[in-house]
Request: fold
Amino acid sequence: ILQPVQATRGCPNNCEFCSVTPFFGHRYRLRPISAVVAEIEAMLDYGRSNIIFFVDDNIAGRPDYAKELFKSLIPLKIRWASFSSVAMASDREVMELARKSGCIELFIGFESIYQENLDLAGKNWVRTDMMKEYIRVFHDHGIIVEGAFIFGQDYDSKDVFRKSVDFIQATGIQVPVFGILTPYPATRLRARLEREGRLLPEASDWRLYDASHVLFRPAKMSPEELEEGFFWAKKYCCAPR
Reply:
């Protein structure tokens, strides 16, 4: 049983497609580490599971805070998972402390195998030529990688589905997660697609905002091709090569 705990709220980044930063007012909030530790200790005292899930959007968004948090978790002898950025892999001290504190799995937003998409989204600190190295670092520290990729970005053509699946299988990402680019309210992505007149009529139906429906006109394929490729990748990715 996963026990939910929150240490931070929001994200220090502002990716074009992401609703987290505008939703939380463009602030990254840090909970006192002593309060986080006390909550986990109370859970353990009640005999609950020692597997913790930090519901934070970016657990290592502030490396200095993350280091102190992870140091404080080591004596608790827990196992934990959370969401993070690939930037975490560039700080070996953070990675080593994450390992020692019991980190077993991280949800990582790789988003795209094309650097042009990452640059357009304002996520240029993720380098496609370094992705294999990022993944290797996580694996070397015993961390399962739940890797997220978004289809339908402006530099995606119909070959992105096969290329993404090949990349995932070649690098050993254990848990691939796919989504269709979605124009969530208040995001810079939605504002841009509105300016460009690319939102579809379906974009007015809030029931479809589950990252599994096409709500805009892609740049290099039809909406039907995007949907078909998305479902193909989800079905095929975990199949034997």
User: Anything to note?
Assistant: The chain has a mean pLDDT of 95. The beta strands are 2-5, 8-9, 29-30, 51-54, 79-84, 103-111, 144-151, 175-180.
